[in-house]
Amino acid sequence: MKSISANDLKLKGVKAFSEEETLITVRGKEKYIVLNIDIYERMRKAELDAAYMEVLEDYKQGNFTSDIDQHINNINA
Question: Residue 20 has what DSSP assignment?
Fold first, then answer.
C-alpha cells in the first residue's frame, strides 16, 4: 500500500493517487485510506451482505417485533 502525507496531498492533489490503495498520514499518524472505486464497491457490498445475513438470522430466531411502537422503544432503549 502506498503512503503519502497530507502535506504531499496538498501539494500534488489528485496526482498523488494511483490505482492502488493510498494511505494518507497526518502528522505521521495513519488517518485515511483512498481506494479505487471498484475495491470500495466490493467492500461495501460485502458489508451489506453481512448485515443482511445478520437480519435473516435474527428473523429465523424470532428476534424481531412487527409492532412499530415497540420497535421505536427498542431503538431508544
Answer: S
Q: CA-CA distance, 12 to 33, in Å (whole number)?
A: 16
Output the pTM of the full model.
0.60
Give domain limits for the chain: 2-34, 38-76
In sequence order, what are the residues at sequence separation of 6 or more whose Cβ sits closer than 8 angstroms to the Cβ of residue 65? Answer: 71, 74
**17 near 34, Cβ under 8 Å?**
yes
Query: Strand 2-5 vs strand 29-34: parallel, antiparallel, or unpaired?
Result: unpaired
Q: State CA 20 to chain mean position distance.
A: 17
Query: Distance (Å, rounded) from C-alpha 2 to C-alpha 31?
Result: 13
Contact 9, 24 (CB under 8 A): yes
- Per-residue pLDDT tens digits for 12-24: 888 888 777 888 9
